[in-house]
């Protein structure tokens, strides 16, 4: 039986909550979202949060790409496996207002392991 260590399970839960909020906020702002990793594109221009959540966390690093009707708007770089709250490693500054909710969720978890 393959069970996850409780600390790792908690970290993954935090990462997923933050990423879900990130995706929900981007889609709520009328963006389509793509997911990319070192293996290539894993999801193309989608507005389906559940589909996107099913595709995340397949590798240690992913790029969430936001598109409007014209094209590329910006991206958010995700890194899994650290403390959980720091899953958003970098982002395009022009998306900061849109992803502020995800950043606040991340901040709310920051003190859990420190």
Percent of residues in helices comes to 25-40%
Number of helices: 3
The number of E-state strands comes to 5
Rounded mean pLDDT is: 91
The largest β sheet comes out as: 5 strands, antiparallel
Number of domains: 1
Strand content: 25-35%
Head-to-tail CA distance between termini: 31 Å
Estimate the global geometry from the Cα principal axes. Answer: globular
- Global structural class: alpha+beta
Uncertain segments are none
Order of helices and strands: HEEHEEEH
* Biggest sheet, spatial arrangement of strands: 2-1-3-4-5
Radius of gyration computed on alpha carbons: 14 Å
Structure description:
Helix 1 (6-28) runs antiparallel to helix 3 (100-109). This protein has one domain. It is α+β, with helices and mostly antiparallel strands. Strand 4 and strand 5 (88-91) form a beta hairpin. The protein has three helices and five strands; from the N terminus they run αββαβββα. Helices cover 35% and strands 28% of the residues. Strands 2-1-3-4-5 form a five-stranded antiparallel β-sheet, covered by helices on one side. The chain has helices spanning 6-28, 49-55, 100-109; strands at 32-37, 40-46, 61-67, 72-79, 88-91. The longest helix has 23 residues, at 6-28. The mean pLDDT is 91.
